[in-house]
């Protein structure tokens, strides 16, 4: 992600990200994907300047764009690893929830500030967050709009691993290498089975 200054999630950025994942579906050699920021922050969330001038219909299309992008990432057949540095707020945190793993740097700050400005986490946050950190914890995070540092986010289970900021990419690559030691079709089948089964009756 490289949209200065804070990777605000514009319509075009999300559409491009979805297209990249759809293009990667054609490459059968891909066995893991890492999402990271080229900037000082992972993402401060939706582009509110863009949202401010939208009509109601445009806002609906923008929300569909968010969900299309995040659902494409979540359903991508191989594991997706998200590297989080700096701010990871609102839509940025929802993007990270669409990934299989989240690794945070020691400077990251994660939260869902939507209710503080009169909206809700409308791009999967209300659905995916409870599955990751538990129902009451998700309600606490969303209702209070608090921000949590890397250690707190690890304790809640939002982050899977933490590391020094300078080691973030290496930590992501190490995790990918651990996955690559195993049979690729079995990994894909396991991901599909876990995702499909998580919300259905046994």
Q: Can you describe what's shown?
A:
- Helix 3 (56-74) runs parallel beside helix 4, helix 4 (91-97) packs across helix 5 (125-133) and helix 5 packs across helix 6 (135-144).
- The longest helix is centred in the N-terminal third of the chain and has 19 residues, at 56-74.
- The strands form 2 sheets. Strands 1-2-4-7 form a 4-stranded parallel sheet, sandwiched between helices.
- The chain is globular, with a radius of gyration of 16 Å.
- By secondary structure, the chain is an alpha/beta fold.
- The chain has helices spanning 11-24, 48-52, 56-74, 91-97, 125-133, 135-144, 150-156, 168-180, 184-197; strands at 33-35, 80-84, 87-89, 101-105, 109-111, 147-149, 161-163.
Describe how the helices and strands are arranged.
Layout: H1 11-24, E1 33-35, H2 48-52, H3 56-74, E2 80-84, E3 87-89, H4 91-97, E4 101-105, E5 109-111, H5 125-133, H6 135-144, E6 147-149, H7 150-156, E7 161-163, H8 168-180, H9 184-197
Parallel strand pairs: 1-2, 2-4, 3-5, 4-7
Antiparallel strand pairs: 5-6
Helix pairs in contact: 1-3, 3-4, 4-5, 5-6
